[in-house]
């Protein structure tokens, strides 16, 4: 049953109260008065107890990078040296710990940081960018995407490192244009098409012209305008007709979802705003799907739709978006 507006506001307020109590209890040593008030708040309703348990579980999920940074207590080695040297070493170790934790936190919050830093062209989450290559070809990058481009006198090579890109290739019969994404290679002479990478899958959709798609094995597929193919489970599937208005809607700043599973929704959210997207699904519930048309510049609209589907969706700007039931 979908909650009413008042019911959803009550749930959100309970989550906020649980988060506030969790922060107070972690702040040094809570007084007995704080502990007593907390126990009284827990006893008010089962919903309070459930919300606090969820917040605590989510915190330890988010706290994992810091735990890994200090694994094996390596920073405590060498405590038997002289006092002055020990103090200097402790300071150096403390600085190293801080640096490792900061780096771990940054990489945890944004797993595309390194990919984008070393790419020729890249976009951060929430950014969309058009790039014109030296041969006149145009590449349109969606949020959190990165490419490398090497254009020589005999061949044009682009590697899609992460994310999603649309290509409008300048015709040149003497220089094939090849886009590599993982193990999938798309070869063209002059056309417009899109390549979308997501974890271990790659999707290729042709808007205009003709392309040849291969995966480094014996399988290969030729696509014409309005056709697409997907690479999943270590193989290319069969080509199929594609509704370009829906598949390429992201180029117009729109996302069209039609019974889209939550893991795909989470992937789209990660392209729309900074911070890690954490999806926690309870196997005791039926899988949730989402339908609707959303602006790529408005991730809050997707979160509102998820809440309307009886899910909790909490966004900590720049840090994380947490989706759970």
From TrEMBL:
InterPro entries annotated for this entry? FecR, FecR_N, Ferrdict_sens_TM
- Domain FecR protein: residue ranges: 120-211
GO molecular function per UniProt: sigma factor antagonist activity
Instruction: Respond yes or no to whether keyword Transmembrane is given for this record.
Output: yes
Bilayer-crossing regions: 91-108
Which of UniProt's keywords are assigned here? Membrane, Transmembrane, Transmembrane helix
Gene3D superfamilies named among the record's database cross-references: 2.60.120.1440
UniProt entry tagged with the keyword Transmembrane: yes
Please name the Pfam families in this protein's record.
DUF4880, FecR
- For the FecR N-terminal domain, which residue ranges apply? 16-56
Coiled coil (residue ranges): none
- Tell me what this protein is called: FecR domain-containing protein
**Source species:** Ectorhizobium quercum
């Amino acid at each position: 049953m979908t909650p009413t507006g008042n019911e959803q506001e009550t749930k959100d307020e309970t989550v906020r109260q649980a988060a506030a109590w969790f922060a107070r209890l972690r702040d040094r040593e809570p007084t007995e008065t704080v502990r007593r008030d907390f126990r009284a708040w827990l006893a008010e309703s089962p919903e309070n107890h459930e919300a606090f348990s969820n917040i605590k579980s989510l915190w330890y999920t988010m706290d994992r990078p810091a735990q890994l940074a200090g694994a094996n207590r390596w920073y405590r080695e060498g405590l038997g040296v002289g006092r002055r040297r020990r103090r200097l070493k402790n300071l150096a170790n403390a600085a190293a710990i801080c640096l490792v934790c900061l780096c771990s936190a940054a990489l945890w919050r944004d797993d595309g940081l390194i990919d984008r830093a070393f790419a020729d062209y890249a976009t951060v989450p929430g950014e969309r960018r058009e790039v014109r290559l030296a041969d006149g070809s145009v590449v349109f990058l969606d949020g959190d995407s990165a490419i490398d481009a090497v254009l020589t006198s005999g061949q044009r090579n682009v590697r899609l490192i992460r994310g999603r890109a649309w290509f409008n290739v300048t015709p040149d019969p003497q220089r094939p244009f090849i886009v590599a994404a993982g193990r999938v290679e798309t070869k063209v002479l002059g056309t417009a098409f899109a390549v979308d990478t997501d974890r271990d899958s790659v999707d290729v959709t042709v808007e205009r012209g003709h392309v040849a798609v291969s995966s480094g094995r014996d399988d290969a597929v030729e696509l014409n305008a309005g056709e697409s193919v997907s690479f999943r489970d270590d193989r290319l599937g069969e080509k199929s007709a594609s509704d370009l208005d829906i598949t390429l809607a992201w180029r117009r700043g729109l996302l069209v979802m039609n019974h889209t599973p939550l893991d795909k929704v989470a992937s789209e959210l990660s392209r729309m705003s900074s911070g890690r997207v954490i999806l926690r699904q309870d196997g005791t519930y039926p899988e949730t799907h989402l339908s609707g048309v959303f602006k790529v510049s408005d991730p809050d609209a997707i979160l509102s739709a998820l809440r309307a589907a009886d899910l909790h969706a909490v966004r900590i700007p720049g840090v994380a978006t947490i989706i759970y039931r």
